[in-house]
Amino acid sequence: MDAPLRPGEVVADGLAEPDGPRLRIIGRIRSRWGAGDCPRNIGTARAQGGVGKVELDPTFAPALDGLAVGQPVVLLYWLGGARRDLLRQSPRHIQGTRGTFAIRSPNRPNSIGLATVRITSLDVAAGTMGIDAIDCYDGTPLIDIKPWVERADLPPAR
Amino acid sequence: MDAPLRPGEVVADGLAEPDGPRLRIIGRIRSRWGAGDCPRNIGTARAQGGVGKVELDPTFAPALDGLAVGQPVVLLYWLGGARRDLLRQSPRHIQGTRGTFAIRSPNRPNSIGLATVRITSLDVAAGTMGIDAIDCYDGTPLIDIKPWVERADLPPAR
């Protein structure tokens, strides 16, 4: 069921099933992308004109109030098809292998995708929000929307 | 058990228990902070000299390989004490109320904290990493470490 390993990839042996808190799926991300044509990252998606849309479960629509068109937000989404047991990986665009926490691969202990996007339209009543780009399959489960803020999301000065 | 509501706060009625994927706790964040003195955000923590440390479960230590001291990383952590049912909130530092997705409050459908920090030391064999600051309680469960990358984490040009 898991994707096959590439040369040099290392799996964490004997992992128990995840037993932490359960996520709540709050909506879906709509995109142009599917399994065959999904860009590798948000930069590529943006370059290809991959505009997208957030469709919240109606219950959560009121929680959009206070956001504004033009504002950057951080989206967290669940990449359900990814492996959760890889310690070292060999992505196609990298020579050799690298530890999972040193790359942005969806294959990680918790398959959470993270992207900063700009709001292009907003309908709080409908629970929908246009976004300038996104790098996941159409229908990807959404788990959070946060306003992007410089103090938390920009690397600190050295 | 939940924190009491403030005036104007709105709860999502009749929410079922979360039934999405289960998280895997991959380690703990060590900090100077506890329930009485934890800064409200990473900016304040940084100003107060709130250096911290990541301690991975030994299983995941090898996944740090490829990171480097000085590099910025995004940490995702689980804020277990937060409410998951608030649609509108009235944070102490804001006049009036605001939708949950318009603020960075830990009270959100999925209690995931997010901060970009700089690596100050790294011991892959031990599975530990010093970080320049953090804004959560000592012992907070860690769920992901991602390298900060401009294309995904910086707001796109308008």
Automatic annotation (TrEMBL), chains A, B:
Q: PROSITE patterns in the record, alphabetically?
A: TSAA_2 (PS51668)
Q: Does the keyword Phosphoprotein apply?
A: no
- SUPFAM superfamilies assigned to the protein according to its UniProt record, in alphabetical order: YaeB-like (SSF118196)
Q: Which GO terms describe its biological process?
A: methylation
Gene3D superfamilies referenced in this protein's UniProt entry, alphabetically: YaeB-like (2.40.30.70)
Q: Which UniProt keywords apply?
A: Methyltransferase, S-adenosyl-L-methionine, Transferase
Q: Which residues form the TsaA-like domain?
A: 23-157
Family matches, as InterPro entries: TrmO-like_N, YaeB-like, YaeB-like_sf, YaeB_N_sf
Q: What Gene Ontology terms describe what this protein does at the molecular function level?
A: methyltransferase activity
The family note in this entry says: Belongs to the tRNA methyltransferase O family.
Q: What is this protein called?
A: tRNA-Thr(GGU) m(6)t(6)A37 methyltransferase TsaA
Supply the source organism for this entry.
Answer: Rhodovulum adriaticum
